[in-house]
Here is the input.
Amino acid sequence: MTTLHSTSTHSRPIPNPAKSLITKLNMGTGVVVGVIFAFATYFAFRPAADASGFYNQQNKALLGAMLMWSVGFLIGIGAFIGPFRWLIGKDLTAEEQLYLAGDGQGIKRYFKYCTDHKVVGIQYLVGVTTMLAVGGGMAMMIRTSLAVPGGHFIGATIYNSLVGLHGITMIVAMIIVATGPFGNYIMPIMIGARDMAFPRLNALSWWVLFTAIPVLCSAWFLGGIPTGWTAYAPLSIQAGPGMNSFIGTILIFAVSTAVAGMNITATVIAMRAKGMKWNRVPIFVIGATMSVALAIPAFPTFMLAMVQTATDRVFNTGFYDANVGGSGWLYAHLFWIMGHPEVYVILLPGIAILMEIAPVFVRKPLFSYNAAIMGFAGIAGLSVLVWAHHMYISGWTPTLNGPFMVTTEMISVPTGLLFLVMLGTIWRGKPWMKLPMLGLFAVMWNLLIGGITGIYLSDVPADNYLHGSMFVTAHFHYTLMGAALTGAVAGLAYWFPKMTGRMLNEPAGYISFWFTQIGFQVLFLGMFIAGAEGQPRRVVSFAAMYKYTNMISTAGAYLVGTGFIVLLWAVIHSWRKGVIAPQNPWGAKTLEWTVPYPVPLENFDEAPIITSDPYGYGKGN
Amino acid sequence: MSDNTQHEEELSPTPGQRVSNLFKRNDVRRTTVFTFLWTALFVILGLYIYPKFMPEVMSVDMKAMERIMVAFTVISAPIAGLVLGITTQALTNRHTGNTPPPDGPAVRTNGPVVVVWSVVSGLFCLIAVVWGLVELNTFANAATVDERTALHVEVVGSQWVWSFKYPELGVESDKLMLPVDRPVTFDITSADVNHSFWPLQLGIKIDANRLQTTHINTTPTKLGRLDVKCAELCGLYHAYMETSGEVMTSDDFNNWVTSNGGHVA
Here is the structure.
């Protein structure tokens, strides 16, 4: 990108390369072109009702339409204008590039292919919030259905679909919940960069992700996803047309995470301010980078697994079909080679946010920066060696259960270091009980419970009983929701003033915190007991003996739901009418608090020079 | 020489004095109390709550499983206690209001603490690993030894029923009947998608895969009712893919076999 000298937001004229096509393209043109592509593809491949191999051809038409929707949308929004110019030996003009940065275009730029990292951050924030709200709504329906035994509320078809859709919606949302909004909006400012390393790829990562959302929603109209989010073969081969939505979503999402992951990693490696050596990088940046770097090898295997599922469904290739020499175990391996690093992709940024928050709110330096890095690196490194603990009882090679148990239990050591860093930071301090800081205390408890129950599950003889039970469901909700989501909400409360210029409504924030956290304990401690008693996961109906634990869980779920509705109200209300925030409301020392709101294009008038790490709090520092 | 030593002792306290000075501090005392309270809570949880809610122990595997749940909870109780003790102590020291709290001490790290913490969590990890490996080895040995005398049961999972075949006895059933105190080997396969064979009270579980046979062994040790479930989402009526069974005396079992058209070996 051409370097443009930034002066001030208001004095710069709005560039108007009137003849250029890019000024006429936006989300609307994207949707139009995408829909045309989708329908054209569908009608081109649509099978006749009496065609032989009807289901294969129907899968081909549907999946093709979904992927072409994504391609069409990106063409329609102008994502490929730059690459097309390269083909003919040109590039966007400087004026066009400035136009794409969206400066001074107000609310319209959020609906365009905008390269400003702050716009992309807000787009991610709104997108993620929407997905979490939809996924949460589905969770409420699941819990409502499970309030009483018998499963009469919604029936098995809808229930199984809800379980799959809730799962995949939440997983996708949680993967980007911290690195999307905060990784894009805050992180470049934190490292003193003017933008991401590849601003156009940044816009691409968001808009590719955006195209995955309608594809996922289409599952509702195609008969749902009956396989759970794991989409195990051969069940996924047997499943109806809704399965195409799952495959399409993952194929598109994998591209988005690959692009975003490489972009964030490159930015942190190459764009840090002068003097920001590796031991002066804020810990959130380290955690977020390790998270996205871990996703770079993980998601291609998921994509591969989905490509093979798709070819099995469309061309009868039989990768996972035992009848023709394939194996469901192959799918399980590919899935979990992604699946286990993926839970740490979700967890690490949440913890890193809390480590960023803790020093500010206890006015002490981060305790043992090196231990924090060793903790993150240890978890990231080990997490690629543990996948088969999800397959202890699959029977593929019982002899290897021992080694996988060893690697899995070793993760408790770097996880312990993360606890030590947070404990050491709050030790002998006076924690300032603002909204962001509350999250740290909740996570200490939630991650502890999630961690200890994880140790039972990592032990093969215990897993022989607990695998596939509600105990597992409760365990991973404690880590992903109790720790990672709580960390992300703390991050939202912390950076809300910088992203919106207003303070998050405090009373509503406290009410939301207590409702969600207390409800969460009721919900999932009840579920642990149901699992220990022997209730399997993903069941629409359960025996009368699990009546009370399930009723308690459902009651807890309503508390959590209420809490999140209050939070959503607080966010929307504060964004529109909240108290105007000072530039640095928490007195923090990281770079994002040195810039005003609204953050000017290219962030800094003068490039900052870093002379120490940002944790110089405390007496004598 | 002796003067010199004495001089040094006056300057720096002995390790014992340092520990006793440490425990004179209010925050350390409070933390210690909270740590004991939280540890006690986790010990109670491990010793009473889990065994109370888990199904009846009817096999060696279930016994081992329950022992692990109890032991791991109790062993991790002090660590959980310390984490929550420090956290609770920090809460008693909280600062509210709209201005930031006063600066704390600028402690950036503490080498010995990091080392001790890592070593202790490493030891805990080692205990868990060794315990698990020993159990695995015990089961593997038992399976080999029992192989000659074991009763073979062929289990087939299909959407959405379990069926049990006793090839040596010439009996088929949709209920899982087992004689007590005799080793049993399950050979499990699936007629369609993945299922997971889970006889609750026996504490074992293994997937049923299409055109693959998986094996698992156990020895029922107690008479009583068995609940058999499917633990892998297998389609529409996954939730209803369950059956029951019974562990009976070997006389009762033989009677059941002969009355169902089988022959007792």
